[in-house]
Amino acid sequence: MPEQTLAEAWGSAPAVLAVVAVGLVLGLVVAGVDRAVVSGGSGAAVEPIRSSARLLLEQRRTTLAPDRLLWRLGGTAVPVLALLSLAVVPIGGRTLWSTSADLVWFNAMEALLWAAVWLVGWGPNAVHAVTGGYRFLAQGLAYELPLMFALITAGLAAGSLRTTDVVAAQQDLWFVVTMPVAFVVFVAGAAAFAFWGPFAAPTAADIAGGVSSELSGVDRLLVEAGRAIFLGASAAMAAALFLGGGSGPWLPGPLWHLLKTLAVVAALVWIGRRLPVLRPDRTVEVGWMVLVPLTLLQALVVAVLVLTGFYA
Amino acid sequence: MTSELVLQLLLTVAAALVGVGLYGALSQQSIVMVMMGLELVLGGVLLAGGAAWFFLAPELPDAQMLVVVALVVMAVEMAMGFAVTIAIYRARQVDMVDMATDLSG
Amino acid sequence: MLSDLSGWAIAAVTVLGVLSVASGIAVFVVDSMARATFALLGSFLAVAGVLLALDLVYLAVVTALMMTIEMAIMVVFMLMFMMNPAGLMPMTMVHNARGSAVLGAGAFVVLVLGIWLIDWPTRDVSRPPDSTRQLGEAIMGSHMLVMLLIGIALFATILAGTVLATARGRYDRFGSGLDAQQPADPVPGGLPR
């Protein structure tokens, strides 16, 4: 074990609580930035909290013959998976727990989202919702492989799948310099698995809100919060894997990491809200014909650089 | 509790998965359900491989490789199973094993 | 030799083992095909949890990752090919249930007899500091041949699966003379042609 984890430093329960709190704050930040970009700043800080409180109090609607067990399971899984993926994101230079396969862990939590989102669509026994669920699976086939290659590229350069090792390997040079394609693909993949922005086809208006069409009250709050936390966690992960994490002059490390995370969130929302929603049948072809070769090429370049001792 | 006992318990769980999977693969009529039974058998293999690595030979990577191979077998089985299901359904609207007994002796 | 697993880990492994078998049985008991598929996923996730407790982090998360995506695809096929997707009407689709149950139980009994009668070796073993690194070095070193064959097998599977599943050949796309400028695809795709 190279470094102390958060759980070892603070004890398990406080560390878990801290990560949950960080996740909630990140989710609120994403929702606030989103609100500011869409409607120009008015009440951006208060609005996410107010609508969360409203959803908490709202009475649940239900549908005819829903599969209640699977519906609730899927809805609860979305924020839980988002928080679990945050467990391997460094917070203040330490992760909640550190395994020898952190990057694969992050990837697996996002893969479990395939099941969760499909269940949210399947549960209510409604045609628009299940259509949205199928759209998410089709979109998943498009983004999953490029996203995996992007994650692996960062691990390849660091020679480790441990997040803290990847951050430590960027002392001299941020990875985004040598792997810009992997960085862009990772951030775009984050938007895709949070089915947000240009990748919001599973919840698009043409199917009346898709997977979220029958959600109400707490269920809607859980899914929407999960999406926002996933976006925030991915931005923090992108800052750690490609933008050097806490490295930077003058300011302390955690502050730098926070600033970089905020910058990624702002850029993601600012660009994402200016693009139209993409159709999954189009993204699949682009994913396989363009992004898979591109990310493979990126991995090849990084592999050659590793062999020449560039990162050592 | 000795590690031998834990190993035997885990292998028993794996054997139960194999037994349940075998029952499913033999008794189900739908091709897709037969595949689910086979997957369950392979899930038992995963568990047994992991237990064997931890308790019997952690200094060697061989048991880990066995788990990797079992995972690949699962992927191949799923891909080919789905492809065959689609092909046979497209050819003659059959989705049950009882209607596709051309190769039975 | 005393166990390397802590008391907590033994308890977790036991619970997860029972859970994996219980949801494995549920696969063939529940009526809803969606529930059956996700019961199978639950069984795999429990197995992944056991692997995690056994210090096989990489294999555990890869199992969870692969099986989740597999089951998400599986559920599409289940709903496509089964008559009772949501289980709103109870029905069974089995043949020779008694014989299958006897065979399944027989296999279990034979395996259990072997497991509990064999004298397992109890020796002091040296644990690698990092199981992921051990696997990676095996794949890229002593066991590279296995990985090469796996790669070829997966590639062959991709080709064979596509050939079997698709009903359209180049004559359907480009016409009987193969002279169409644009392929006639049912789904246009995202790239200019």
Automatic annotation (TrEMBL), chain A:
One Pfam family recorded for the sequence: NADHdh
Compartments reported by the entry: Cell membrane; Membrane
UniProt key word Transmembrane: yes
GO cellular component, one term: plasma membrane
Annotated keywords: Membrane, NAD, Transmembrane, Transmembrane helix
Superkingdom of this protein's organism: Bacteria
GO MF terms held by the record: NADH dehydrogenase activity
Membrane topology term: Multi-pass membrane protein
Family indicated by similarity: Belongs to the complex I subunit 1 family.
GO biological process, one term: aerobic respiration
InterPro entries with a match to the protein in the record: NADH_UbQ_OxRdtase_su1/FPO
Main location: membrane
Residues annotated as transmembrane: 12-33, 69-91, 111-130, 142-161, 173-200, 221-243, 255-272, 284-311
Protein name: NADH-quinone oxidoreductase subunit H
From TrEMBL, chain B:
Keywords: Cell membrane, Membrane, NAD, Quinone, Translocase, Transmembrane, Transmembrane helix, Transport
GO CC annotation: plasma membrane
Transmembrane segments annotated in the record for this chain: 6-26, 38-57, 63-89
Any one Gene Ontology BP term: ATP synthesis coupled electron transport
Subcellular location(s) per record: Cell membrane; Membrane
InterPro entries (alphabetical): NADH_UbQ_OxRdtase_chain4L/K, NUOK/Mnh_C1-like
EC number: 7.1.1.-
Pfam families xref list: Oxidored_q2
Membrane topology: Multi-pass membrane protein
Known catalytic reactions: a quinone + NADH + 5 H(+)(in) = a quinol + NAD(+) + 4 H(+)(out)
Gene3D superfamilies with a match to the protein in the record: 1.10.287.3510
One of the record's GO molecular function terms: NADH dehydrogenase (quinone) (non-electrogenic) activity
Top-level division of the source organism's lineage: Bacteria
Protein family (similarity comment): Belongs to the complex I subunit 4L family.
Purpose: NDH-1 shuttles electrons from NADH, via FMN and iron-sulfur (Fe-S) centers, to quinones in the respiratory chain. The immediate electron acceptor for the enzyme in this species is believed to be a menaquinone. Couples the redox reaction to proton translocation (for every two electrons transferred, four hydrogen ions are translocated across the cytoplasmic membrane), and thus conserves the redox energy in a proton gradient.
Quaternary organization: NDH-1 is composed of 14 different subunits. Subunits NuoA, H, J, K, L, M, N constitute the membrane sector of the complex.
Protein name per Swiss-Prot or TrEMBL: NADH-quinone oxidoreductase subunit K
Species this protein is from: Blastococcus saxobsidens
From TrEMBL, chain C:
Phylogenetic placement of the source organism: Bacteria, Bacillati, Actinomycetota, Actinomycetes, Geodermatophilales
First-tier enzyme category under EC: translocase
Gene3D superfamilies in UniProt: NADH-ubiquinone/plastoquinone oxidoreductase chain 6, subunit NuoJ
Main location class: membrane
Catalytic reaction annotation: a quinone + NADH + 5 H(+)(in) = a quinol + NAD(+) + 4 H(+)(out)
Superkingdom, taxonomy of origin: Bacteria
Record GO terms (molecular function): NADH dehydrogenase (ubiquinone) activity; quinone binding
Keyword Protease: no
Keywords associated with the record: Cell membrane, Membrane, NAD, Quinone, Transmembrane, Transmembrane helix, Ubiquinone
Topological type in the membrane: Multi-pass membrane protein
Subcellular location: Cell membrane
TM stretches of this protein: 6-29, 36-54, 60-81, 101-118, 138-165
GO cellular component annotations of the record: plasma membrane
EC number: 7.1.1.-
Keyword Acyltransferase among UniProt keywords: no
Pfam name, any one: Oxidored_q3
InterPro entries membership: NADH_UbQ/plastoQ_OxRdtase_su6, Nuo/plastoQ_OxRdtase_6_NuoJ
Protein name: NADH-quinone oxidoreductase subunit J
